[in-house]
């Protein structure tokens, strides 16, 4: 079976996709060193218990509890920075220990890598093949080296005791060896074709440069077992003998076993994938896909055990199938991106988070999450590029959409599994409903983003200019990186998203309260929740990176397309802005007729008016997107619909800012402002355009889908009702460069980004302030701080709260016994002084993390302190009579009641033994 020369690594638009060996090697290195870093971080000679106590103590002192990371509130960020500063004083020894352990692991890996050729030659007693031994054989081998295109011939060695007809390429650096078994040398005389195929297969490993990659990976695996796994097993056994709680804790053990198995599977995958690529290269050299010619050394029998994921070599059937279609080696798949997701999440949690959470400010932590999001988007972009490359050289109808869906689903699933396998969080291994929903949303967004990259790469494939390709790839990479950095970073910790629904619910309720306060129409509530959407206001308002990425979603395809067809989209966008102007004037006229200006100049009516304005704009953008989609071509309509919607949004944002600035100067436009000109800032325009950009993108996509559905329905109806008529859509005809259209698109995009990048200075007046945002954030902050959580309460108890609780309890009991037993005055006074001192120390300790317990704690300490101080003062001044003693007893009883309530509250949530255990 012969055919065209197959290609193992296809290219698209000037980019060659990396080989699977390189991808698997990078994943294996990242995963191995990340797991090793976490093992050494946790299993430091002082033990994990000491580190846990330090983390809990710093959480209590700072009031910032892990699992409740702040998002934007300054006081919460300050508490987190205090926590990081507290740990920074104690983390230097662990950083040095981890760095030293990783250095030892790397040094041992390098040593094993350098020694493995010497050890293999010595152990197998290999002999170098010289020209004098067999001139004909050595000359033929030199010809095969030239055929393989190697600049330097490897050293050929002979294994005289091995009867197999096989070979092996090994070595380090530039020193490469090829072992020829004794059985293979007999084929040189009896079956030259098989001999040639086997030798070319080993030379293909040398040509693909996977020999140093493979053997360094094996060296890292062995070094990992020696320097990380063995010390951890010994440490766990030591802890289980020294510390009783570790005897019943299997969280670290089973997660470690899973991670080690994962590293082992990655090593086997690396060894398998290199064989596929070597087979493909041999097939290209032989110009044939016949397995009898390319794979003569395949075993004749196939065993079902072990399974393929435990094998170091692929099954013969898989090698034959890949040989027939070598282009499939470059297509994205579920398993590869599942592994990539696990590796990325484990590296994020294991290597970076402990270091950052142990001594860096909060903005660095947010930058880490942004980097995670950027890497996720680059991974799906890489999958889309590989899909486009396979489509370019593969069959005409390649199911690239199915591949992208599987890749994104694998990446999302790997992210969730990676977090569950992390040693940094030993919670419930089963994900909650919120985490599953969050991963589903992540997968959906990744699919859309990967399809966009695929379409842009197809447009670049039609471009012949190298400069345009470079600029195009840079723009595509910038777009996906910005979207990942600003938006997808929220999915870096799926478990932490459990608190988001309740927080957004409180923010939404606070925004909806403006509708009750204004009480203008029955639609105010709905419009406020749609336009001042909590998600948009929480994550997208004044988010320059996100909005810039959304702008690039439409400007990049328009600049890369051959025919831009701006002549229709631009007027439609301006017409949508004009329609909004009519709507806005009507709303303001109705408001002026029904509400006096004194009542309109309030935060509630400003919020309601803005909600009506944004709702009208969203409706206009929806209609603009639907019209553009219904008229233009289906494939090119989405970018044009987004451009038209962006034109509408930019124009309307300018009008809203102008009305806020000059509305009071023109009586028909006066709605809220009471001075001429109004006082506003560039932040107002940037905020409005940011909200319009985010919500307008959603409106454009929905309108595009609606317009295409209507267009398809009308086509079916026209085909059934009338003879087929060929109509030319708007913008069709002779292809033109479209420089004017591209210039217009670039101007609109640049203007949008410039407005979004205006300085974020605070408002000087409340005239145009975003009151719903400020009020919602204030209410949401209070609600978050008041929320009770089991984990923070336990941390507070273990971090010193239980000790103060027991100290206050002991001093209270002692004072009560001395009073009730009519002890000597000196002893009773000493008990009262001790109680006052213990209460003073407890007051200096941070209060419990939730509001109810904090309230009871403060009331208890205040009552007990008041009772002790009143008794001591009355005793020292000689005014201790029946009335004074009654006041002391009443205050003391009030403190005891608060103590009992607090004790019942803690035991009801944590169990009766929680205080004793702490």
TrEMBL record:
<dbReference type="GO" id="GO:0006508">
    <property type="term" value="P:proteolysis"/>
</dbReference>
<feature type="transmembrane region" description="Helical">
    <location>
        <begin position="252"/>
        <end position="271"/>
    </location>
</feature>
<feature type="transmembrane region" description="Helical">
    <location>
        <begin position="433"/>
        <end position="454"/>
    </location>
</feature>
<dbReference type="InterPro" id="IPR001915">
    <property type="entry name" value="Peptidase_M48"/>
</dbReference>
<dbReference type="GO" id="GO:0004222">
    <property type="term" value="F:metalloendopeptidase activity"/>
</dbReference>
<feature type="transmembrane region" description="Helical">
    <location>
        <begin position="640"/>
        <end position="664"/>
    </location>
</feature>
<keyword id="KW-0862">Zinc</keyword>
<keyword id="KW-0479">Metal-binding</keyword>
<keyword id="KW-0482">Metalloprotease</keyword>
<keyword id="KW-1133">Transmembrane helix</keyword>
<feature type="transmembrane region" description="Helical">
    <location>
        <begin position="568"/>
        <end position="591"/>
    </location>
</feature>
<feature type="transmembrane region" description="Helical">
    <location>
        <begin position="337"/>
        <end position="358"/>
    </location>
</feature>
<keyword id="KW-0812">Transmembrane</keyword>
<feature type="transmembrane region" description="Helical">
    <location>
        <begin position="21"/>
        <end position="43"/>
    </location>
</feature>
<feature type="transmembrane region" description="Helical">
    <location>
        <begin position="611"/>
        <end position="633"/>
    </location>
</feature>
<feature type="transmembrane region" description="Helical">
    <location>
        <begin position="215"/>
        <end position="240"/>
    </location>
</feature>
<dbReference type="Pfam" id="PF01435">
    <property type="entry name" value="Peptidase_M48"/>
</dbReference>
<feature type="transmembrane region" description="Helical">
    <location>
        <begin position="370"/>
        <end position="391"/>
    </location>
</feature>
<keyword id="KW-0645">Protease</keyword>
<protein>
    <recommendedName>
        <fullName>Peptidase M48 domain-containing protein</fullName>
    </recommendedName>
</protein>
<dbReference type="GO" id="GO:0046872">
    <property type="term" value="F:metal ion binding"/>
</dbReference>
<feature type="transmembrane region" description="Helical">
    <location>
        <begin position="684"/>
        <end position="706"/>
    </location>
</feature>
<keyword id="KW-0472">Membrane</keyword>
<feature type="region of interest" description="Disordered">
    <location>
        <begin position="763"/>
        <end position="793"/>
    </location>
</feature>
<feature type="transmembrane region" description="Helical">
    <location>
        <begin position="403"/>
        <end position="421"/>
    </location>
</feature>
<feature type="domain" description="Peptidase M48">
    <location>
        <begin position="133"/>
        <end position="326"/>
    </location>
</feature>
<keyword id="KW-1003">Cell membrane</keyword>
<keyword id="KW-0378">Hydrolase</keyword>
<feature type="transmembrane region" description="Helical">
    <location>
        <begin position="539"/>
        <end position="561"/>
    </location>
</feature>
<feature type="transmembrane region" description="Helical">
    <location>
        <begin position="95"/>
        <end position="115"/>
    </location>
</feature>
<dbReference type="InterPro" id="IPR050083">
    <property type="entry name" value="HtpX_protease"/>
</dbReference>
<feature type="transmembrane region" description="Helical">
    <location>
        <begin position="466"/>
        <end position="488"/>
    </location>
</feature>
């Amino acid at each position: 079976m012969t055919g065209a020369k197959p290609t193992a690594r296809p290219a698209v638009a000037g980019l060659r996709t990396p080989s699977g060996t390189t991808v698997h090697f990078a994943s294996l290195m990242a995963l191995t060193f990340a797991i090793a870093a976490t093992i050494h971080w946790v299993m430091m000679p002082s033990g994990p218990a000491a580190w846990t106590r330090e983390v809990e103590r710093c959480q209590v002192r700072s009031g910032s509890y892990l699992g409740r990371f702040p998002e934007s509130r300054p006081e919460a960020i300050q508490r987190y920075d205090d926590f990081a500063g507290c740990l920074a004083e104690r983390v230097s020894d662990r950083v040095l220990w981890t760095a030293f352990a990783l250095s030892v692991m790397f040094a041992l890996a390098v040593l094993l890598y350098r020694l493995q050729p010497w050890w293999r030659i010595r152990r197998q007693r290999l002999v170098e093949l010289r020209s004098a031994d067999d001139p004909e054989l050595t000359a033929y081998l030199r010809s095969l080296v030239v055929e393989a295109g190697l600049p330097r011939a490897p050293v050929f060695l002979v294994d005289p005791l091995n009867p197999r007809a096989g070979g092996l390429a090994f070595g380090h650096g530039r020193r490469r060896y090829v072992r020829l078994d004794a059985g293979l040398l007999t084929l040189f005389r009896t079956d030259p074709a098989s001999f040639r195929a086997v030798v070319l297969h080993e030379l293909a490993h040398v040509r693909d440069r996977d020999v140093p990659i493979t053997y360094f990976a094996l060296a890292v695996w062995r070094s990992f077992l020696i320097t990380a796994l063995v010390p951890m097993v010994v440490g766990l056994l030591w802890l289980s003998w020294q510390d009783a709680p570790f005897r019943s804790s299997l969280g670290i053990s089973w997660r470690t076993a899973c991670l080690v198995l994962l590293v082992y599977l990655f090593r086997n995958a690396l060894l398998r994938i290199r064989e596929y690529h070597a087979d493909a290269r041999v097939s290209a050299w032989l110009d044939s896909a016949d397995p009898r010619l390319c794979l003569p050394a395949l075993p004749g029998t196939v065993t079902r055990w072990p399974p393929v994921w435990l094998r170091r070599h692929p099954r013969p059937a898989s090698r034959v199938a890949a040989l027939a279609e070598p282009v499939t080696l470059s297509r994205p798949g579920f398993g590869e991106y599942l592994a990539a997701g696990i590796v990325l999440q484990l590296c994020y949690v294991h290597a970076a988070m402990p270091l950052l959470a142990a001594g860096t400010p909060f903005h660095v932590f947010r930058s880490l999450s942004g980097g995670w999001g950027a890497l996720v988007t680059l991974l799906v972009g890489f999958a889309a590029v590989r899909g486009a490359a396979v489509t370019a050289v593969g069959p005409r109808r390649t199911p690239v959409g199915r591949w992208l869906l599987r890749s994104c689903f694998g990446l999302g699933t790997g992210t969730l599994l990676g977090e569950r396998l992390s040693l940094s969080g030993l919670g419930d291994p089963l994900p909650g409903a919120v985490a599953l929903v969050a991963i589903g949303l992540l997968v959906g967004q990744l699919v859309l983003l990967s399809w966009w990259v695929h379409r842009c790469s197809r447009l670049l494939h039609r471009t012949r200019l190298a400069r345009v390709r470079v600029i195009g790839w840079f723009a595509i990479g910038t777009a996906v990186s910005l979207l990942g950095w600003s938006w997808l970073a929220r999915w870096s910790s799926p478990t932490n998203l459990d608190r988001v629904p309740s927080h957004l619910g409180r923010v939404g309720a606070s925004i909806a309260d403006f509708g009750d306060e204004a009480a203008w129409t029955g639609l105010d509530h709905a419009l406020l929740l749609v336009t001042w959407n909590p998600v948009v206001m929480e994550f997208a308002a004044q988010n320059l990176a996100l909005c810039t990425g959304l702008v690039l979603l439409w400007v990049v395809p328009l600049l890369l397309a051959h025919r831009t067809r701006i002549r229709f989209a631009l007027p439609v966008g301006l017409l949508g802005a004009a329609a909004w102007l009519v709507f806005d004037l009507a709303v303001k006229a109705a408001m002026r007729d029904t509400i006096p200006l004194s009542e309109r100049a309030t935060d509630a009516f400003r919020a309601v008016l803005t909600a009506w304005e944004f709702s009208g704009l969203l409706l206009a953008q929806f209609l603009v997107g639907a019209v553009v989609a219904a008229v233009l071509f289906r494939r090119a309509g989405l970018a044009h619909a987004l451009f038209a919607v962006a034109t509408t949004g930019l124009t309307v944002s300018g009008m809203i800012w102008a009305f806020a600035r000059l509305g009071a100067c023109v009586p028909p436009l006066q709605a809220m402002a009471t001075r001429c000109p109004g006082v506003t800032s560039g932040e107002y325009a940037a905020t409005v355009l940011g909200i319009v950009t985010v919500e307008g993108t959603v409106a454009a996509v929905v309108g595009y889908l609606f317009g295409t559905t209507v267009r398809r329905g009308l086509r079916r109806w026209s085909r059934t009702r009338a003879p087929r008529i060929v109509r030319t859509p708007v913008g069709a005809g002779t292809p033109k460069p479209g420089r004017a259209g591209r210039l217009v698109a670039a101007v609109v995009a640049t203007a949008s980004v410039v407005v979004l990048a205006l300085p974020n200075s605070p408002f000087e007046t409340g005239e145009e302030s975003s009151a719903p945002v400020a009020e919602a954030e204030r209410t949401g902050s209070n609600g978050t701080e008041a929320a009770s959580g089991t984990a923070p309460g336990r941390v507070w108890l273990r971090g010193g709260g239980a000790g103060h609780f027991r100290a206050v309890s002991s001093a209270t009991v002692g004072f009560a016994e001395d009073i009730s037993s009519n002890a000597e005055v000196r002893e009773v006074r000493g008990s009262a002084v001790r109680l006052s001192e213990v209460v003073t120390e407890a007051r200096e300790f941070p209060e419990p993390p939730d509001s109810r317990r904090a309230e009871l704690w403060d009331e208890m300490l205040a009552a007990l302190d008041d009772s002790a101080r009143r008794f001591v003062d009355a005793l020292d001044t000689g005014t201790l009579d029946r009335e004074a003693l009654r006041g002391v007893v009443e205050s003391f009883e009030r403190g005891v009641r608060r103590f009992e309530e607090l004790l019942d509250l803690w035991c009801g949530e944590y169990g009766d033994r929680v205080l004793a255990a702490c």
